[in-house]
Structures are given as structure tokens and as C-alpha cells.
């Protein structure tokens, strides 16, 4: 199993950066001191870990805990005051805003369809791609039970669809592309991004949906062992044309997302969410770091930076320290 998946699976419920008990610790006068906790979206987890590590190096008096568990958990934890920041990989819903949720867009990525690298119809699939209509038949109506149903042929090779069992931004964003909600998605439900990727790795007939950070290797930026991203036939002409071929590496796909060549959704903004506009100096300092110096990590980590306009709007909302 890929080293990246081993780490992700092990750390699903465990924070990689531990914190000490109690309140603020004594440090030199004027130094930032305190504790910060984040939970939520698998999509944002790898980048949040990098932000946390660098922020703690810049501010040794701060300890940060980061845990994954899905966007739904991140939002619930933030609104309940269980964590300081929820990681949410979808838009903030009006009822959540009414409860005090404030979202700060911090990165952008996308959800992509993944298939087994040894799929018996691989060449045809890579040539024709996945249309939105075919995706609806796979995950919504359940009409597509063979790969022939996807390719428009009489081929009877079976198709096994996978979706997410946890409330998450990836499934919600994928469903939004199909004009539906996560609960409308059919298929075998699997927990977490690593879980879906592993299920597809083990099933030559499988098709799943993954954040691109879990479809590609974090070091090589090539597809993770055993899976490939199935190209989306954006113009619905039944063939993947040269301008739609940008899936060989994560870098190519990221460039395509930034240029608007990949549909949105399933491309989407990723958020850090607070309950109310933050006043805690540690939370404010971390958000300001993420929206400034922290953005330098986005592209190397396989994400896209946020527009200057969105960054400035967030900084204006956070305000200055009193």
C-alpha cells in the first residue's frame, strides 16, 4: 500500500500534531502563545498539516492539533465549539451561517472520478472519458451496471460504484455537479477519502470519487498505485480531445482547474470555518498566516491559491489585533 495511504488511514482519528492540556503557557513577553485545534475535511487535511507545522516553527509558543473526519464533522465541531477551526470542503449552507458559521476560503482543489488501473475497458474509458450523463446513471439512477452502459456499447463487464459513507464535501460537491445532494448518491458507501481510494485499488471493476490529493501520489504527483483518474468529457462529444487531456500528473490537473478547463463543481473552494468572527489572537494570527505566507504551500502541495479579492475580503473580516 502507498505510504501516503498508510499515513492517512492511521491518522484519520488521531492528530498528527499533539497538544498539551491546559490553557496558555508562559512564554517571553510579546510572543504568541496558546493552543489551536482543527478538524474536518480529508481534502484540506494534508495542507493543514503543513500550515500547522510551519506556524508552530514561527511561533514556538503555540501548539496545534489537526484531525481528519470529513467536512460534516468539521462544521459540527466548529459550531459546537469542540475545535477552533473546522475544515470544510464545500460551500457554507445558509442554516450554518445562521448558527454563526463564518467561512474563510483558503485553497481550491477538485473531486475526480477514479477507476482501477487494471480496468478491463481501460483504453476505451481513457479515450471516451466520463460524461455527466453517464455519471448520473452510475451514482443517481443506478442504470449503469456495466461498463458498456458508460461507453454506450453492449459490453457486459460489470461496474461497481463507490461513494462516501461520511458526511463530506467531496461527495456533496460531486453530487452538486449532478444537481443532487450527497444523500442521493448510490453505490457502496465507504468511510473517508483513503477508504474509497483503497476500495477502487482492490476492485478492477470499481469507480469512485476522490479529492485529487488522494488520487495522486504526494511525492511524485503521478497517480497513486493501482488507480487512475478517469477524464471528464466536459464538452460531451464522446471523446477526450487534446484540450481535455490533463490527467497524467497532479500538476497538469491543477493547471487545468486554475484555467477553468475542469468543471466547477466538482472543482471547489476549501474553507476554514469559525463560529462567529474570531477574536482569539491565536486563531486570528493563524488565519492571517494561512491567507498570506501559507498560500505559498498551496501549489507545491497540490492545491490552488485563492484569489487576491477573496483573500483581502477575509483579511478585512478578521481585522487587526486589538
Question: Would you give an account of this structure?
Answer:
Strands 1, 2, 3, 4, 5, 6, 7, 8 and 9 form a nine-stranded mixed β-sheet that branches. The relative contact order is 0.18. This protein is of the alpha/beta class. The protein is elongated. It folds into two domains: 3-109 and 268-318, Periplasmic binding protein-like II (D-Maltodextrin-Binding Protein, domain 2), CATH 3.40.190; 110-258, 3-Layer(aba) Sandwich (D-Maltodextrin-Binding Protein, domain 2). The chain contains 13 helices and nine strands.
Provide a concise account of the structure shown.
The chain is α/β, with parallel strands linked by helices. It has helices at 3-10, 45-58, 71-80, 94-98, 122-128, 132-139, 147-151, 169-177, 193-202, 212-215, 250-258, 281-290, 308-318, and strands at 34-40, 62-68, 85-88, 101-116, 160-164, 188-190, 206-211, 227-229, 267-275.
Biggest sheet overview: 9 strands, mixed
Q: Provide the structure class.
A: alpha/beta
Q: Please report the first level of CATH classification, the CATH class of the largest domain.
A: Alpha Beta
Taking Cα atoms only, what radius of gyration do you get, to the nearest Å? Answer: 20 Å
Strand and helix order: HEHEHEHEHHHEHEHEHEHEHH
CATH superfamily of the largest domain: Periplasmic binding protein-like II
Overall structural domain count:
2
CATH topology of the largest domain, by name, is: D-Maltodextrin-Binding Protein, domain 2
Give me the number of helical elements: 13
Gap from first CA to last CA: 49 Å
Indicate the mean pLDDT. Answer: 91
User: How many strand elements?
Assistant: 9
Which parts are unreliable, with pLDDT below 50 for 5 consecutive residues or more?
3-27
CATH architecture of the largest domain: 3-Layer(aba) Sandwich
Helical fraction equals 25-40%
